[in-house]
Amino acid sequence: MKILILEDEAIIAESLFQLLESMNYQPMDAVATPDEAIALLNEEHPGLVIMDIRLGKGRSGLEVADYINTHYSKLPFIVLTAHSDKATIQEVKRFRPAAYLTKPFVKETLFAAIELALPEHTEEPAPAPKPTIQPETREEPLFIKIGGRYEKVEIKHILYLQAKGKYTEIHLPYAKYLMRMPLTSFAAAYPQINWVRIHKSFFVNASYVTSITGKEITVQESKLPIGRAYQAEVMQRFNAV
């Protein structure tokens, strides 16, 4: 079954393509704009569409959702987004997606979303493999190259992550390190940590959060901003009343 990918972040698009291939689906080359997606819909007739809703230049994947509902009403689509606040969910619900997938995602959640989107799909893909990080090895440290040496970082001790362009700054109680990996990719690589996204530039380790206000969260001694788009989700995640 062919799957159309609408995603303007190249790293996420490539990751999604590889995950779909590994599950024996047939991903099409990802496109970055609604116009390209609609053209491929009409030319290739995919069996499923996975679309990001926040695209560049003010465009939205929901333009494609609207087109699907008008011209291909039986075609299922999955909405992919970094936002799960109430306003975004209410906006998306109007277009009746088959599933809703939040970033960062892992193979198992992607597989589940596809299965929910295709309840009557007869060609069953290969079962989702076990996570590459097994429970008994999840506490293994990360080694980061600093100059001519490698320093050990215990993943469970990470307080929070901060985006620095194409890099991620890793904050620990005793040091901070810069890794050449985008923020969402790093968080997705270590799903065993209870990450909470509080801002487009920050993920925090929920285990180290000490206090929350409507606009700020404290992780040990560090005070970090909560983005407006994430406030409702953060308060709900921590059962803040």
TrEMBL record:
Domain HTH LytTR-type: 142-240
CDD domains found in the cross-reference section: REC_DC-like
Molecular function GO terms recorded: phosphorelay response regulator activity; transcription cis-regulatory region binding
Originating organism: Taibaiella soli
Gene3D superfamilies: 3.40.50.2300, LytTr DNA-binding domain (2.40.50.1020)
Pfam families found in the cross-reference section: LytTR (PF04397), Response_reg (PF00072)
Domain Response regulatory intervals: 2-118
Modified residues (4-aspartylphosphate): D52
Record's protein name: DNA-binding response regulator
GO terms, biological process: regulation of DNA-templated transcription
Keywords associated with the record: DNA-binding, Phosphoprotein, Transcription, Transcription regulation, Two-component regulatory system
InterPro entries assigned: CheY-like_superfamily, LytTR_DNA-bd_dom, Sig_transdc_resp-reg_receiver, WalR-like
Keyword Phosphoprotein attributed: yes
